[in-house]
Amino acid sequence: MEHKQLDQFPKDFLWGSASAAYQVEGAWQEDGKGVSVWDEFVRIPGKTFKGTNGDVAVDHYHRYKEDVALMKEQGLKAYRFSVAWTRIFPNGRGEINQAGLQFYIDLVDELIANQIEPVLTLYHWDLPQALQDEYQGWESRKIVADFTNYAQVLFEALRGKVKYWVSLNEQNIFISHGYLMASHPPAVSDPKRMYQANHYANLANAAVIKKFHDMDMPGKIGPSFAYSPNYPLDSDPQNVLAAEDSEDLNAHFWMDVYLFGKYPIAALKLLKEQGVAPIIEPEDDELLAAGKPDFLGINYYQTNTVVFNPLDGVGLGRMNTTGEKGSSEESGLPGVFKRVENPFVERTNWDWEIDPEGLRIGLRRITSRYRIPVLITENGLGEYDKLTEAKEIHDDYRIDYLKGHIHAIREAITDGVDVLGYCTWSYTDLLSWLNGYQKRYGFVYVAQDENQEGSLNRYKKDSFYWYQKVIQNNGNTI
Ligand code: BGP
């Protein structure tokens, strides 16, 4: 629908930007930090682009004051970051490592002193290696107690200071990449193990949310889901059904559990037929029902256009992690769906489809199905950037991308969607898990190249100044 006039963004809208510990901090062995599964995984030859790792990353651990000063200059209202579990508990549990905890207390204090709302992610994929070794991490029910215990330490330490908490970042991604595509640790490829690990992650998520509410914590908590709304390629009923199936298996399969405490019917039935459904204990339903989030975090990058895929059709294909346009392979689930190119949208050099309208569509779907406020916890464009001799970065393509998506949010707000805020991915340039340092997302350029050499100096991109104005006008000129 087209509105005659668009609503204004709410006055207290959180104009923000985001990062994750492993991708920015570096200092991987400092101040008592333990080893995470990513610290180990990146050392296995061939796992990441050109063997890049987060040992130094963009050195945010030592430069956080400089980074926060840049945020302040830009006028950022919120900064989303994650805590490295291994800084708090080097071995996942046991004695608290005070120096590690202090880093986050200092970061939060620095943000608050600069009028920036901290949005804290409890888990952005860097599981303590000790828990992986001891009981296979997410593949054990034991993770629920350890994750809750770790979260409680942060709840207590930052009570009243941090008002927005993200429980798990992109459970759907770390589980599917970790246990099916084998592209993230622990590099397993087994659907049965994947769905069981996913079930324990659901329990851990619910337990942490329940703990937050039981402790009467001021503020709000919710998971961040990587949502790629599904489209059928055309109106062939087979393809429409394939899109419904993809929405069920790739989206409702997580969001329904977060919001309804139940898996979607058709998806679970299919997994049972295939013998890969998770074992669900009777008491699990109770916990899932008791751990309802206050908001849903959404990470939005692209939509997913599908057609029907016969039983002898394509399976998992390779992703483009090189930035060589057109190098990704076809991918699908035999008997259900396969992904195809959407002929109506452009693609990035990493083959990600650029579809601002898809964000509005996704926000509308969430609102209709779940009636819950949404915090957009990630959205952005990963591209090559060029530092000119004058030390400038003319990233007009990023400005176009963000402008289109902010406009789509404004339209969604006008449709009646309750959006709490918008965090771009990412604040500074940072390490892209599988794509190295050349795939850049930041408002702030960091001199760090593929060989992990560079001054690590920060330079403001054109998009930095553009977003500064957006914030000044509370988005209402877009
Ligand atoms: C999300 C992750 C982020 C970030 C982003 C961009 O899935 O939550 O941590 O990496 O995607 O992805 P990529 O780095 O693969 O381009």
Summarize the structure.
It holds the Pfam family Glyco_hydro_1. The active site is at residue 378. The protein is of the alpha/beta class and 478 residues long.
Could you please describe the fold and organization of this structure?
With 478 residues, the chain is of the alpha/beta class. It has one domain: TIM Barrel (Alpha-Beta Barrel). Helices cover 40% and strands 14% of the residues. It has 15 helices and 16 strands. The strands form four sheets. Strands 1-2-3-4-5-7-13-14 form an eight-stranded parallel beta barrel, surrounded by six helices. A four-stranded mixed sheet has the order 6-8-10-9, with helices on one face. Helix 8 runs antiparallel to helix 9 and helix 9 packs across helix 12. The mean pLDDT is 97. The structure holds 6-O-phosphono-beta-D-galactopyranose (BGP). 6-O-phosphono-beta-D-galactopyranose binds next to loops. GO terms for molecular function: beta-glucosidase activity. Pfam families: Glyco_hydro_1 (PF00232). It comes from Enterococcus plantarum. Keywords: Glycosidase, Hydrolase. Belongs to the glycosyl hydrolase 1 family.
CATH architecture: Alpha-Beta Barrel
Bulk shape? globular
Strand residues, percent? 5-15%
- Overall structural domain count: 1
Ligands and ions found: 6-O-phosphono-beta-D-galactopyranose
**Strand line-up of the largest beta sheet:** 1-2-3-4-5-7-13-14
